[in-house]
Fold each of these.
Amino acid sequence: MDGKEISEPPQLLHVGITYNLKKSDRSKEQHSQSGDLEPSDNEAEYDDITTILAIKEALEGRNCRVTLLEADEELPVKLLEDKPDIIFNIAEGIYGRGREAQVPALLNFYKIPYTGSDETTLCIALDKALTKRILSTYGIKTPKYRIITKDQNQLTGRFYFPAIVKPNAEGSSKGISDVAVVTNRRELEKLALKNISLYKQDMLVEEFISGREFTVGIFGNGSDIHVFSPMEICYVNQVNQYNIYSYNVKRNYKEFIRYECPANISKETEAEMTNAARKIYEALCCRDFARIDFLLSPQGKLYFIEINPLPGLAPGYSDFPMIAEFNGMDYNSLVWNVLKSALKRYGMKSYID
Ligand SMILES: Nc1ncnc2c1ncn2[C@@H]1O[C@H](COP(=O)(O)OP(=O)(O)O)[C@@H](O)[C@H]1O
Ligand SMILES: [Mg+2]
């Protein structure tokens, strides 16, 4: 014996990917089968099959056997039959304010390990106002806001215009058009009431912060948390007088946006942003990965806008893989690092090489 340890090769891992697919590519409002009017961006949060296949390919390159489990009504049966060792979850859920929590809650019910944050974190983060309220108790600065409902559509107290109107529980800029900014109470009431009926939920109205926009990616857990350097969203072409990262701009980002990473900011501002991002990630008990949006006012004040504990992973489109790429981590490594974080968290170390 020469004293060298012979290490076991990592075990083959059976990974199921849970996801919801876009079903149609619409450009206009449409009536659903039940007759409801649905907005043109109704499926903004759902994924293209190309994203699922890219994740599959990334995992197959890492000693994984991958099965595709669309998160529809049949998911409970599929999970029981498929018996994956772990789930790579990117499912947005089907319906309701807590829809992103549906799949994680089911996986907890069956005690199946999965990547990403748990149901409670996903529920809270999908409710933008609730997240802002929680984070304000941690001293995180966020734009002043009100919630407008069908029955309570008047602004109360002191509130400054312009303001932005956003569905309270959406992502991917769903419900945020290029005309989401209002300049007085009359405009606000009109837009809020229209969107409450179209998006079937309360509207979050926030004071508009004109300034620079940044998004920060994070992955890992505990002492392994890694915060990527912030990416700035810079406008090369103006959409209107308010540059907002709307649904239209995201879809046509090549026409409007130049992404800058590392962002051209001072070391102090960068540290303030990455420290805030880590604090928010930990305060909300995020796991494995997340992306956090910030605005920086011309006076240098940093505002938290929202957190995405289930950030989009569309290669060549979503911000999170773009941030990783700028920071020297290619798509396949990013996918593997997310899975690896989850494997470590569950103590499944024999699958990690
Ligand atoms: N208070 C605000 N002031 C200025 N711009 C805002 C504000 N809130 C949101 N925006 C703009 O709207 C975009 C989408 O808003 P966000 O809350 O991040 O929604 P989503 O979850 O759909 O990404 C942001 O990326 C930003 O450009
Ligand atoms: Mg956002």
Amino acid sequence: MEFSAHFNTQWSNLLWRQPLRPLLGHYQGIDYRAHIALPDYGERLLQHYADILHGDLAAYSQRVDIPFLYQHYGVIIEFEKPALVTLHDTSMQLESGLRQIMQRLGPIIFKNAYLDTHLRSQGHRNRFPHLNFHIDRSINQPTQYSMYTRDPFDDEQRYPRTASTLFIPSLVGNLQAVREGQPGATSMKGGQNTYTLFTREDMSGLLGNIILQHAWSEPVGIGEVSMLDNRTTLHCSYYRDPSVPGYKIGVRYLA
Ligand SMILES: [Fe+2]
């Protein structure tokens, strides 16, 4: 549990206390820069969905029965040199520190990181549909976390990808569906497992504002990893060039 001795609740508290400031550190001799992707996220939602939320996110969350946990949303950790990270064990148990960070801050994105050889080819490869926000795991499955990987040693994945992975809290799926007047959005309590959203929106003002984007755009030979908790976050692919869906990324499910 060497990893969780460093990246854990205490670590996320450092980010939380100064959400606008990057956190500089080093792990196993490699410098990194970490920052919160979407600080003051609750405030952003209150503004963006003002006509639906009427200034009270907590009351809305309670009414639609979808928990909202994120004052700030998303963590990005960028290593200065390629970093070997052991993020889970062979029985697919995620490092406990990562679970702690996700509970507080939502999805985590690692850049310039790669997994150990014996874990690298675990899981399968997949490409999600464009702007179809969904969960990977049903509530009954023991593995509620999804991890996505770009393997820097793989012939295909060593190149930057033309498609992004997008993340939003489950509550935002509901809010946007209500905004778009989608049938059932207002009446369904607890949220849906899948929505197609934002298809008529100009995404440039939303990415990095309301929507967390993992663009997989690091240079050739750079590894990337991201992860989410399916109980609280929806994700999808976003084909930045609609004619090029991008290669399949690595997908694994963890407990
Ligand atoms: Fe998925």
